[in-house]
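Below sits the subject:

***
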Amino acid sequence: MNKMGITLNSRILLAAASILAAAALVVGATFAFFSDTEISTGNTFTAGTLEVDITDQNADTLFESEAIVGNWAPGDQSFVNFDVKNVGTLPVNLRGFAAGSWGTNELDSQNMVRVVQVERWDGSSWVNIQSNPSGIIGYFYWSPDGTNTALYTVNAGDRAQLRLTVEFDEDAGNDFQGQTFTSSLQVEAKQLNDNTTWP
């Protein structure tokens, strides 16, 4: 013990504490870093568009009020060629159907005119998508077999080229002479997502 009343052990502890404090200051100073924060504002997310047009084949004119055939006789088949152009910004899947009626309600619109084949242009020839000599009922899909599986994609700006074979039933009677059948095409598009439902 010395005259100040501090023991040797206390001096050792005090010296050790001073060394540790100095070491902590040195270590803290050694690991000091500069830092900076940047903020980016005004960023936008714009939704894409989903829109298709039914156009004349290889053209951008709308396919409407077309005179498909004149002087049609029972048993005749006619081609209806058209494109479905993706004028939106998102890639899409397609499906469609054809419907129509005679100018008078007394004629059988459902059974006397029918779509018997749907084909697609593959760049060099027409390829069957779906066919049924009794008539295609309901939707046809832009796919290898005309069903809602393995759907083809139509990218923005591209077009699906289609051809329908429409048949005037061979058993149509004299009541159909001089009558006009007016048809319509409906095409629906959906975004590429297995969870997206058709409109």
